[in-house]
Amino acid sequence: MSAPELFSVDSTSGALRVAGNLDRDISSGQMFYTVAMTARDGGSPSKETSATLKVILENVNDNAPVFSSSDYVVEVSESTAAGTTIHSFTAATDVDGDAITYSTVGAASAVFGVTGTDLETLTSLDYEAERCYSIVIM
To answer: Which of 19, 33, 40, 127 could form a disulfide with 8 if both were Cys (CB 3.0 to 4.6 A apart)?
Structure first.
């Protein structure tokens, strides 16, 4: 949307109002809008002046990061040593441009950890004690 569709000016008070959705995260990467304003007096003949207003958008963290897949399946031998990388996942993306950190949550976080985008074993594994883990990475 262009600036004239996103902003309106009250003809009496001159107050500038947002008339549409402003989102710095849209694919256009719009970081500011330029609004041309004109003021006219009621004289005869009327006189006018113009000004340009630059509206700068500040980024708001209004989107969660997104992984390229919501589910991953990794098969690991129980003889895998502690500290071994068992899976490297594609980094999540964040349209807000914020830095992303990863961590495991829940019971499996005592057994698995994340360094960068690598999932690692923190302890030795025992198939007879635990055959399957569900790991949540945030």
So the answer is: 19
Residues in the chain: 138
User: Is the pTM above the cut of 0.70?
Assistant: no
CATH of domain 61-138: 2.60.40.60
Domain coordinates in residue numbering, the chain? 3-56, 61-138
Tens of pLDDT, residue by residue over 9-58, are 888 888 889 988 887 776 556 788 888 888 899 999 999 999 998 988 88
Using alpha carbons, select from 18, 16, 21, 15 the residue that is nearest to residue 1.
21
Whole-angstrom CA distances from 88 to 40, 72, 83, 92, 119 are: 63, 11, 14, 12, 6
- C-alpha dihedral over 67, 71, 77, 80, to 10 degrees? 30
